[in-house]
Write a structure and sequence with these properties.
4 helices; globular; five-stranded mixed beta sheet; 5 strands; 107 residues
């Protein structure tokens, strides 16, 4: 039911920028929804495990850096953010790569 709503909302996005956090969970992955998010998102946020899932989903056996660049180009993603827990995050754009260390809690 929600998927139909997402399809309708994303089909009429116009100039609106779309941010998608795939937030995939084992046993609850709708591949059609993943494809829709990839096709319609301008900004995509993944974690390292989701990037591994996408490599399999897209039938790609390449290193993560090449895969992220392929996702940017193939789906016209403007910003791709990959979080990796204690290793921080990496932001990919057509202008380059920015690495960010993990945040430490304030005391």
């Amino acid at each position: 039911h929600n998927f139909s709503l997402y399809q309708k909302l994303l089909s009429d996005k116009g100039d609106t920028k779309v941010f998608c956090d795939l937030n995939l969970r084992d046993g609850n992955i709708n591949k059609a929804a993943v494809d829709l998010c990839l096709d319609r998102s301008d900004i995509l946020k993944l974690n390292a495990e989701e990037l591994t899932f996408l490599a399999k989903h897209l039938d790609r056996r390449t290193n993560p850096s090449k895969l992220t660049q392929e996702i940017l180009v193939r789906y016209a993603i403007e910003i791709l953010i990959v979080t990796d827990g204690e290793h921080g995050s990496t932001i990919y754009t057509d202008g380059g790569i920015t690495k960010s260390p993990p945040l430490t809690p304030a005391k």
